[in-house]
Write a structure and sequence with these properties.
The chain is mainly α. It has helices at residues 2-18, 39-46, 52-66, 72-85, 89-112, 121-142, 147-166, 174-178, 205-213, 218-239, 246-258, 262-285, 294-315, 320-339, 347-352, and strands at residues 26-27, 31-32, 190-192, 199-201.
Length: 380
């Protein structure tokens, strides 16, 4: 513990020193200590071929950044340390996300404290664009990401720059969502499939079905399966208190965008609703105004369930129990939005925090009572 603390203290000292010189700073023990938003400096460091020791330590720090539960400040610290030891696109991208989320939290605090001129996201996005320039330069040189992730990284850089130039957001531009820029289509459930996957609103069944009818490649189907498996792996970690539902939502959205399936939609709806409920609970504990409501989350979930039902009707990929669960959840959520009445066993209402206190509750992923009397919608 003391050795790691000394390492951080020394790194901070070097960073302070680097701010006072125009040279590209480098330290054998710590790697690159220049400006990560300057691609030419980062590439100059990479071309010196950092040691295998640096590469291994960078991977270790990146792994710690992914597992952080103490807040985005810790994620930023570890991803930054990883990028300085051995620059990689994935570390820089995680650094961009943590930086934007920290900035958004600061702006939210300004608003809650009643300040007249809150900080705006543009400055943070301008810095993010420079970091993304470095990330793309690194990946062009190193080629450490697969084609899909590389294209996704390039898209993030380009869509942030287009926003800065035009003020218009784009579907699937996650950095804008991390910065909580108003009016971004991705906040309504859109995602960009960088390898030619589905591009559009996941809550709009017609274009989604058109994508399925186009018979996506086996590669995309395999990608969808892998992403869904990653989402499933998050659930036991959530129950152990190691992470939140946001990762489940993200992986399921990516899975559906690669190839839509009922199972990915089902778990994605749970992730989205539970993630929203957790955020509202945290905001209430801190005395902050909630950025969303259970009803608004359920309206978004209903659109996803519309698409899920349409996809499952065509694909018939679920077993009978999961198939009936999907159609029941769809019906009970739509019923709640139409009438305001809750229905026992409607797990999405529980996940969103909309169920009355006396209603039946089931715990855990995929919870909810399935009434045997409800007829199946499956065709023989």
């Amino acid at each position: 513990m003391w050795a790691q603390l000394k390492w951080y203290i020394s790194l901070i000292s070097l960073l302070a020193l680097s701010a006072c010189t125009d040279e590209v700073p480098y330290a054998e023990e710590f790697g690159f200590v220049g400006k990560l938003e300057k691609p030419e400096e980062v590439l100059a460091h990479l071309k010196t071929r950092p040691s295998e020791k640096h590469r291994k330590k960078a991977e270790e720090m990146y792994g710690q950044a992914q597992d952080m539960t103490q807040g985005w400040e810790s994620v930023a610290k570890h991803s930054l340390a990883s990028a300085r030891l051995y620059p990689t696109g994935k570390a820089l991208l995680l650094g961009v996300e943590s930086m934007l989320r920290i900035d958004q939290k600061a702006r939210e605090k300004e608003v809650n404290e009643g300040r007249k001129v809150p900080l705006m996201p543009r400055g943070a996005l301008e810095r993010a664009a420079r970091w993304l320039d470095s990330a793309v330069a690194v990946e062009t040189y190193e080629k450490s990401l697969d084609n899909e992730r590389h294209d996704e990284l390039v898209f993030y850089r380009d869509c942030v720059k287009r926003y800065l130039n035009s003020g218009k957001g784009e579907a699937g531009c996650w950095p804008l969502q991390w910065a909580h820029v108003d009016g971004i289509p991705c906040s309504e459930g859109t995602f960009f499939g960088s390898d030619g996957g589905f591009y559009g609103d996941l809550g709009n069944p017609e274009p989604l079905l058109a994508y399925v009818r186009a018979n996506p490649s086996e590669t995309r189907k395999k990608t969808a399966e892998d992403l869904f498996a990653m989402a499933q792996k998050q659930v036991p970690r959530i129950k152990a208190g190691l992470t939140s539902w946001g990762g489940v939502q993200k992986y399921c959205m990516e899975s559906v965008s690669a190839y839509p399936t009922g199972k990915a939609f089902l778990l994605g709806v749970e992730g989205m609703l539970r993630n929203g409920a957790e955020a509202r609970e945290e905001q209430a504990k801190e005395g902050r105004k909630a950025l969303s409501t259970p009803r608004r989350s359920l309206e978004r979930a209903a659109k996803w369930l519309d698409s899920a039902v349409a996809v499952e009707t065509r694909e018939k990929s679920l077993d009978d129990a999961e198939h009936d669960k999907l159609f029941f959840y769809h019906a009970c959520v739509r019923g709640y939005l139409d009438t305001g009445k809750t229905e026992a066993g409607c797990a999405p209402l529980e996940w969103a925090g909309a169920m009355d206190e006396g209603a039946a509750r089931q715990q855990g992923s995929g919870g909810g009572f399935m009434r045997k009397s409800r007829p199946s919608n499956r065709k023989p």
